[in-house]
Design goal:
Helix content of chain A: 40-55%
Number of domains of chain A: 2
Strand content of chain A: 5-15%
Shape of chain A: globular
Largest sheet of chain A: 8 strands, mixed
Oligomer: homodimer
CATH superfamily of the largest domain in chain A: Type I PLP-dependent aspartate aminotransferase-like (Major domain)
Number of helices of chain A: 14
Chain lengths: 427, 427
Amino acid sequence: MHPVLRLSEHAQRSADQAIGFLMQQAVENADCISLAAGLVDEQSLPVEAAREAVAELLSDVAAGRKILQYGITPGPEPLRRVFRSYLADLEQHPDGLKDLPLSQLMLTTGSQQLLSLVSQALFNPGDICLVAAPTYFVFIGVLQAAGARIIPVHADDNGMCPEALEKTLQQLETEGQLHRVRLVYVVSYFENPSGISVSVERRPKLLEITQRYSRSNRILLLEDAAYRELIYDGEPAPSIWSFDKTRETVILAQTFSKSFSPGIRVGFGVLPQQLVKAVSDLKGNEDFGSAHLNQHIVARVLKNGVYARHVETVRNSYRQKRDAMLAAAEREFADVPGVSWVRASGGMYVWMKLPDHVETGFSSELFRRATQVDKVMYVPGELAYPMDWPQRPRCEMRLSFGVQSVEGIEEGIRRLARAVKAVMGIG
Amino acid sequence: MHPVLRLSEHAQRSADQAIGFLMQQAVENADCISLAAGLVDEQSLPVEAAREAVAELLSDVAAGRKILQYGITPGPEPLRRVFRSYLADLEQHPDGLKDLPLSQLMLTTGSQQLLSLVSQALFNPGDICLVAAPTYFVFIGVLQAAGARIIPVHADDNGMCPEALEKTLQQLETEGQLHRVRLVYVVSYFENPSGISVSVERRPKLLEITQRYSRSNRILLLEDAAYRELIYDGEPAPSIWSFDKTRETVILAQTFSKSFSPGIRVGFGVLPQQLVKAVSDLKGNEDFGSAHLNQHIVARVLKNGVYARHVETVRNSYRQKRDAMLAAAEREFADVPGVSWVRASGGMYVWMKLPDHVETGFSSELFRRATQVDKVMYVPGELAYPMDWPQRPRCEMRLSFGVQSVEGIEEGIRRLARAVKAVMGIG
């Protein structure tokens, strides 16, 4: 018998998060059609592009050796220059964002590491983060681990509501808690889980409110643009970051995990100048630099145009799958009253609401029936709200069209409708 | 004028660390021969091996897609099986360590990430870590960021002294502080910076003492084996971990950054069963898995024998450079009284002691003279002790033979001797 192992408070707060439950369920329900997994479409993964990029990068021995050496904590400057040009293209910035100092760009292990580092840099236990309701559930876990107090802000079909954000901040000011607010977190494009984007009109408003309430201390806005390039209809919106002319408020998180390859695991962030050192110090302790080879792979495909062509292919593939899921939902749920879903214009998810009384959680009758009888799995919507938030809706589902084929999506939605009807006593 | 940006206590504790000063000095003294940089020998980097591994891994499109997909937080099980076999070979374990559950292996972004995760998992501010004096200075920074109290333990030519470890623990027990001790940190092979290994006789003793003082709570022993395979003389020693029959005390950190490529950035840890979940939860928040492609690259070269051959080449190259540095030191410092150094049997560093009154720190006359006049740079030894430790020696230097050619090493030591003699008023 060994004496007890004491864990830090940070570790204790990191335990028992939604993602853990979800992955456990995925393992236990491996025989289901998964509309749950947030993986990318395997058919879309750029095997040839990656192989060729590495072959080229390592074709010259001297150049190759530099690539296999340590980089530096934020990633090498020449590569950050390439990433800045890429961002300038995304932002349709006329002069290539040359006025953005490279020191404000940091290459990370996916954008997830940036989210984690920013949280570590900002939150003492009890400090406040405002998030849309619903929001990205993995980030909820990160915030919980940091001991942050998470306050959901109402969102509708145009994303987080500026009025609701302002009201929440006013309320916190009234309560004398405004000085504890560190961050507003917004997934601005085709949010995971809701599929909703913040409308163009609201983007500068969310920024302006955040800045206006930066009184005793600065409140930052973390814009998570993970799904930005997975756009299937309409024109791309400018980022919230692009409205931040002094670049002192918005942290922009970008990743190539969705648009290129999660197995290569490269993301980057644009940071307010005053946050650079803190995030870099933290990253220095964590890994003193993400894998250098991988940063070169992404820079290579960005430069030679392979990336742009690949994204176009990916978009076409996901667009078909999104269409298939929406059409299947129309078909299969036509006769189910009180069901609605978001017609996502991008991303990987369809967010579906059932009537209030139909609970979707892991311990619900629907989840049991879906996974045990009809053999289909989804992500319960309640995971996308802080667990201790009493008002959280219990009747929603995140349905991913990322992993399944068109046929798999159609069959998955058919099975899901069967389970919902059974639980609702229809048909 | 923007309102002040408030950083977390964690971020504040992460600031102003030795590594930051050192990198700044490296930039400012770019015209020097660097005996400071801890990079690996660029000539040794396995460009062809890496290129071929990727070409093979991505030659089949279906298999390649799985490699470019997300892995899982601790790394895929089949890969962990390969890493376990590799460890079994290192340990010369007769049955391939098949009794070690794969769940206890975790693949990380270099071993640095494991060190960081373990610290996050264990330390609340004020908790205690015992380290050898001197020790790996980047880990000192990690501990400071965690708010840990760092207590140096005397080490000699056979590594950390068991008697000194026991005395320190006794003292802490007397002070009622034993319950705050979480970890003993030991770089067991060719330590950075001292080049010293813990002798075979001391390995089980350090373990036994750690276990014996695990009274109110378990004390873990973190064995950092980063330089394990860079052995140039004698027989490899069994790890401290190998003596831990119940595998409940030692955390073993291994990396391929030194022996293969830091740009591929793959390391792994073996964790006591009860620590697995905490470290995995923390890593899930940080990145939900290091780059999957890179894990496959390393597994591939481990399996096909390329790695073993490469390590042999690396050893031969570093052995020559080590010999060159030791011979140059004999030559150049022969007429300098009171100078001694460690004849490292492995690793990348020679640890040199000057007479007590000859300070080596960044603000010392020697550092100024070496970098400004003689154009050679070293790492001041005092960085390898906690900054707030009053007894820390100020007259030591870490000299790396990793980066320079044999000629560069010889010229670097010649310049260094010139600077030392000038400061000591010799010749």
